[in-house]
Amino acid sequence: MSETILDIKNVNTFYGPIQALRDVSLHIRTGEIISLIGANGAGKSTLLMTIFGAPKAKSGQILYKGQDLTLLQAHQIAGKGIAQVPEGRRIFAKMTVEENIMIGALPIGDKYIDEDRATMFELFPRLKERRNQRAGTLSGGEQQMLAIARALMGRPDMILLDEPSLGLAPLIVRQIFSVLKELGKNGKTIFLVEQNANHALKLADRAYVMVNGEIRMTGTGAELLANPEIRDAYLGSH
Ligand SMILES: Nc1ncnc2c1ncn2[C@@H]1O[C@H](COP(=O)(O)OP(=O)(O)OP(=O)(O)O)[C@@H](O)[C@H]1O
Ligand SMILES: [Mg+2]
C-alpha cells in the first residue's frame, strides 16, 4: 500500500462565529483518486480552501508529506506541489488557450514545457483545435478542460478539483471524467469535490460524504454507490 500524501486530522474551520468544518479527518494515499461528495453548503469548498490556508483551520492538522500546512501562510502552501482547480475555473479570459496552458508551467520553469503542452493537447484535443482562441470565448466545458490542463502543467504531486462538472452538459462531463480516470491510471493523486455523486463515486478509489461540515460516511466508491442511504440522498434513485 502506498504512503499517505495528505492526512487531514480533526480540522475545524470557522467563518466568524459560524463553524463550517467540524472535526474533519480524511486521508489520501499517493496515486489514489478520492472523492468528497455532499450537498450545497456542506463545506466541501471550505475544506479545499482550508488546505490552501484561506480560511485557516482553527484547530487540527493538515499533513502534506508529513508537513503541517496549517502552520504555513497561504503563499508558502502555494509552492508545495499541490494544484488546485477552483470552483468557477478562473482562467485568464483575454489570453489565448495556449498562453493559459503555458502559464501553468510557471512554478516549474520551461524544462518540460514542450513535452507537457503536447501531452495536454493529446488529453484535450479540443484545446488543441482552439489553441489560438481567447480563453474567455471558450464554452464552459472547454474552460474547465483548460483549467485542468493549466493545473497539470505545473507537474503537481496532487491535484484538487472543486466541482469540475458544475453547469456542464452530460457529454462534456463524461469527457472530463474520462480524462480524470486516465490521469489516475497514470498515477496522479486526485482529490475531487463534487455534487455529481454518480460520476464522483464511479471514478473514486475511495470517497467521503460530508453533511453540515462533518464527514458522515466513507468507503470505496463502489460501496457508497451501492449504499441505499447514499442512493436516496445523492443519486436520485432507489
Ligand atoms: N466566505 C464565507 N463567509 C461566511 N460563510 C461562508 C463563506 N464561504 C462559505 N460559507 C458558508 O460555509 C458553509 C459551507 O460552504 P461551502 O462553500 O464550503 O459549501 P460547499 O459544500 O462547497 O457547497 P456547494 O456545493 O454549493 O459549492 C455554507 O454554509 C456557506 O454559506
Ligand atoms: Mg463548493
The largest pleated sheet is described as:
6 strands, mixed
Number of helices: 10
The share of residues in helices is 25-40%
User: In total, how many beta strands?
Assistant: 10
Structural class: alpha/beta
CATH superfamily (homologous) name of the domain at 1-81 and 189-238: P-loop containing nucleotide triphosphate hydrolases
Show unreliable segments: none
Beta-strand fraction estimate: 25-35%
Radius of gyration: 17 Å
Mean pLDDT: 94
What is the H/E order? EEEHEEHEHHHHEHEHEEHH
Widest sheet: strand order?
A: 6-7-8-3-9-10
Q: What ions, cofactors and ligands are bound? A: adenosine-5'-triphosphate, magnesium ion
CATH class of the domain at 1-81 and 189-238: Alpha Beta
Report how far apart the termini are. 34 Å
Q: Identify the CATH architecture of the domain at 1-81 and 189-238.
A: 3-Layer(aba) Sandwich
CATH topology of the domain at 1-81 and 189-238: Rossmann fold
Q: Which outline best applies? A: globular
Family: Belongs to the ABC transporter superfamily.
GO molecular function: ATP binding; ATP hydrolysis activity; branched-chain amino acid transmembrane transporter activity
Pfam family, one: ABC_tran
Protein name: High-affinity branched-chain amino acid transport ATP-binding protein
Short structural summary:
This protein has 238 residues and is α/β, with parallel strands linked by helices. The protein has a domain of 131 residues: Rossmann fold (3-Layer(aba) Sandwich), CATH 3.40.50.
Written overview of the protein:
The protein has 238 residues and is of the alpha/beta class. It has a domain at 1-81 and 189-238: Rossmann fold (3-Layer(aba) Sandwich). Helix content is 36%, strand content 27%. The protein has ten helices and ten strands. It has helices spanning 44-51, 74-77, 97-103, 113-123, 125-129, 140-153, 170-185, 197-203, 221-226, 228-235; strands spanning 4-15, 18-29, 33-37, 59-64, 67-68, 82-85, 158-162, 189-194, 206-211, 214-220. The strands form two sheets. It has a six-stranded mixed beta sheet, sandwiched between helices. The longest helix has 16 residues, at 170-185. The chain is globular. The model has no long low-confidence stretch (mean pLDDT 94). The structure holds adenosine-5'-triphosphate and magnesium ion. Magnesium ion binds at residues 44-45, 87, 162-163.
